[in-house]
Amino acid sequence: MADLVQERAGMTVLVCAPDGPPISTVDDALELIGASFLGAEVVAVPAARLDEQFFSLGTRLAGEIMQKFVTYRLRLAIVGDIGRWTAASPALAALVRESNTADHVWFVPDLHALDARLREIA
User: Fold this and answer.
1) How far apart are CA 118 and CA 122, in angstroms?
2) For position 44, which CATH number holds?
3) Helices (H) and strands (E) in the chain, counts
4) Residue 28 Rama label (left phi>0; alpha psi -120 to 50; beta)
5) pLDDT of 11-58, one tens digit each?
6) Which residue, among 10, 8, 45, 40, has the nearest Cα to 24 in the 3D structure?
7) Is beta strand 42-46 parallel, antiparallel or unpaired with respect to 11-15?
8) pLDDT above 70 covers what percent of the chain?
9) What's this model's pTM, rounded to 2 decimal places?
10) 23 in Cβ contact with 50 (< 8 Å)
11) What is the dihedral angle through the alpha carbons of 18, 19, 21, 24, rounded to the nearest 10 degrees?
12) Domain range for residue 91?
């Protein structure tokens, strides 16, 4: 399956394929941002595509990637179960809670939850 631009809950979303290339660097994230220039307002990335380092806040990878999306005024949704990482890291759990109260980066369990979140802001 390839990454697809879809209309979801009234917004244009780049839905990244679960079996796509891993996102392990800021440059990988910038490639997704570039792909979103096809008109997407949101990029939905399966959690499974993110390198393990993303979930280890000491590496700063999560912050750097999230900041790139904010800089380009593009919403980022991390889609999937990240419970094993949040259970192991209170700091990551706090980041997820804080992000989910804001407007640019969200952690959602599935695309249905993303749709519900998009309907809230539409």
Assistant:
1) 6
2) 3.30.750
3) 5, 5
4) alpha
5) 999 999 999 999 999 999 999 999 998 789 999 999 999 999 999 999
6) 45
7) parallel
8) 99
9) 0.94
10) yes
11) 50
12) 4-121
